[in-house]
Design a protein that fits this description.
eight-stranded antiparallel beta barrel; binds 2-acetamido-2-deoxy-beta-D-glucopyranose
Length: 605
């Protein structure tokens, strides 16, 4: 999970947007006399509905799907269809076109367009450009790599080229952008500046600070977007405020399936549980994640959004420009290669622009993004040369990505009259292959050797200047001296981490309060190495089962290693195995010492 554009990423075709603009203008000038589409459902047909209901059933989805499709015909007439399928909430209510979902990283495009509006704001002195350096706008902007610190521009941020990996576990809902900024300099980069594109939400959070940092009113990002993008487009249901979404009584609940490990056992039914909405603080002013992934919306508003994007920034009914065309083009044109191999011959190389990837499917150029929040998945894509766009939202935390991808490609094949590819069977096979591989690689050494450091020196408080501090609590050493914090953590572990701790192994637990995690569990593997699981313990309102646990499906292969500092004798531990979330093909750090090998290093206080 984690804000991902997590489905296989996507990509590009070297087609110049300027060329598209020319052809589109010719088309737009013709005034339609008659509707080219009658009022019947053309795309979201009963047959497609049956296909979607069957998918929800065969993938054991407790949730539903919301869909918007928009298509402009040759005389400029729009066909807009929206529909809901399946279940929105645990009370059994159905998904409708008005049902609100969290769209996660599909918010990033709003962040980029907000920056674009500031860049085109002639009353801002000195003027901003896409190449303005962040350090010149935010004096406290500092990264570990001095070159990156000095030279990172708005373009580098939107195309993920600072050299930083995700580091998504460093921030909490109690953070704000000013509290993040001074901690960025301690995050270890995984690549050189501009070497490669590695997805990074933290930089989008930093970008969302622009309206506050630059405008005399110090307006928060969320209010800036509402005032300059959502209101002009009439996207009235769209909000960053949980309070407002909840009050509308239209907010979907995200469903998880405790006990279903989507990697090891992808098709077990499990029993569902709901997530309390993830991002509840901040109201209309938003919070730390607003710019990277905080938007809540429905497919009715997203239909307008898709039309606006296909019209390169213009309002779909009166044609007034809301965002300059050059800004839409900047976001939609590839700035970096996101993936040079999609693993499927139907897709071309994927480029990343700004909050948008660009690829093609069976020769049809597509531009858009995926999004994830706990319990929610989304995709919003448009096919500019085909004047077609679609938005698909899911509230299934386990298989939302697969369901959305299968539905999207099926619709695209129908609409464009393409040959049929059985993505459902492909994805089911893929899940099973991953499960078989995962089972085969989960090994335990035959003869386990204890850590070289005395066990009673390992528990205690550790700290990292970016991630903050945490306390390792020895759940499996009842004789160890316990602090007050650890007494609570250990006492709560059976109910908060039910089923997540192997009682036969030496185990430490740390409780922290991050956006994507409440606990880390360290299970002894061999010598000084522990396996790490990054978990989120989620409260229910059920006294019988007060919590459920999720998170085992990601961060596989993360390990932790202890060492003693050779001079000071102090104990520290390093996290490795892609704990930091580096991009594809980017290797972890190497080296003789723990310090060199660690993606994130914690030192005992
Ligand atoms: C442009 O900047 C002025 C102040 O410098 C501000 O009042 C206005 O809201 C800004 N407009 C946009 C679209 O950023
Ligand atoms: C959400 O709305 C419901 C009523 O629609 C209300 O009972 C509940 O208290 C609200 N929750 C929060 C956290 O505001
Ligand atoms: C624990 O880590 C070791 C060393 O990296 C690895 O070989 C093993 O498969 C991991 N075990 C689990 C259960 O993930
Ligand atoms: C495990 O330890 C036993 C006893 O020391 C030894 O006989 C055996 O060869 C060891 N096995 C491995 C795989 O190292």
């Amino acid at each position: 999970m984690r804000f991902a554009s997590s489905f296989p990423v996507l990509v590009c075709k070297a087609l110049f947007v300027a060329y598209i603009a020319v052809t589109a203008n010719v088309i737009d000038r013709q005034i339609p006399e008659q509707a080219a589409f009658d009022t019947k459902e053309h795309i979201l047909t009963a047959e497609l509905g049956q296909f979607i209901e069957d998918l929800l059933r065969t993938w054991n989805s407790p949730g539903g799907i919301a869909l918007a499709v928009v298509q402009k015909d040759q005389v400029g007439e729009w066909n807009v269809e929206t529909k809901g399928y399946g279940v929105a909430r645990s009370d059994g209510s159905k998904v409708t076109p008005g049902t609100l979902f969290a769209i996660g990283s599909n918010t990033k495009l709003f962040d980029v367009l907000a920056a674009g509006l500031l860049i085109h704001n002639s009353s801002i002195i000195p003027p901003l450009t896409w190449e303005t350096k962040m350090a010149s706008i935010l004096p406290t902007f500092e990264l570990m790599d001095p070159i990156s610190s000095e030279h990172t521009t708005i373009t580098d941020i939107i195309s993920h080229r600072t050299g930083l990996p995700r580091h998504d576990l460093m921030y909490s809902f109690s953070d704000d952008i000013p509290s993040l900024l001074p901690r960025l300099q301690y995050l270890r980069p995984s690549a050189e500046f501009r070497e490669t594109s590695q997805y990074n939400s933290i930089m989008y959070m930093v970008l969302s600070y622009l309206p506050t940092a630059i405008l005399p009113t110090k307006i928060p990002f969320t209010r800036y977007v509402t005032e300059h993008i959502l209101n002009p487009l009439g996207m009235r249901a769209t909000t960053f405020s949980y309070t407002q979404a909840n009050a509308s009584q239209e907010l979907a609940e995200g469903f998880g399936r405790p006990g279903v490990n989507s990697w090891l056992n992808p098709f077990s039914v499990g029993k569902y549980k709901t997530f309390p909405f993830w991002s509840q603080n901040g109201g209309d002013d938003g919070n730390v994640i607003s710019g990277a992934g905080g938007m809540i919306t429905n497919v009715e508003d997203l239909a307008t959004w898709l039309q606006f994007l296909l019209l390169k920034g213009r309002h779909p009914s009166h044609g007034v420009s809301v965002v300059p065309e050059s800004v839409i083009r900047k976001a939609s044109t590839g700035l970096a290669v996101a993936a040079d191999d999609m693993g499927f011959p139907e897709f071309s190389t994927t480029l990343y622009g700004g909050g948008q990837i660009k690829t093609s499917y069976k020769g049809h150029e597509m531009i858009g993004h995926g999004g994830a929040a706990p319990g929610f998945r989304s995709q919003i894509f448009r096919f500019p040369l085909d004047n077609f766009g679609l938005a698909i939202l899911s509230n299934d935390d386990v298989h939302g990505n697969e369901l959305i991808e299968i539905i999207k490609l099926r619709i695209v094949e129908d609409v464009f009259g393409l040959s049929f590819t059985d993505w459902n069977t492909r994805y089911r096979r893929m899940m099973l292959t991953i499960a078989t591989r995962a089972a085969a690689t989960t090994t335990s050494p035959v003869n386990i050797t204890r850590p070289s450091i005395q066990l009673d020196r390992l528990p205690g408080k550790y700290s990292n200047p970016s991630y903050g501090s945490l306390e390792l609590c020895p759940v499996s050493c009842p004789h160890a001296a316990q602090t007050a914090v650890c007494k609570d953590v250990i006492l709560d572990a059976p109910k908060m981490l039910s089923g997540a701790i192997d009682p036969t192994k030496l185990t430490f637990v740390a409780k922290w309060d991050k956006v994507w995690s409440t606990h880390l569990v360290f299970t002894h593997f061999n010598m000084n190495v522990f396996n790490v699981t990054v978990l989120m313990s989620i409260p229910t309102n059920d006294p019988e089962e007060p919590f459920w646990v999720t998170g085992d499906q990601f961060q596989r292969g993360v390990t932790m290693e202890f060492a003693e500092h050779h001079n000071t004798g102090k104990v520290g531990f390093g996290l490795m195995g892609n704990f930091w979330g580096a991009g594809p093909g980017v290797h972890g750090p190497q080296g003789e010492t723990l310090c060199h090998r660690s993606e994130v290093l914690f030192e005992q206080l």
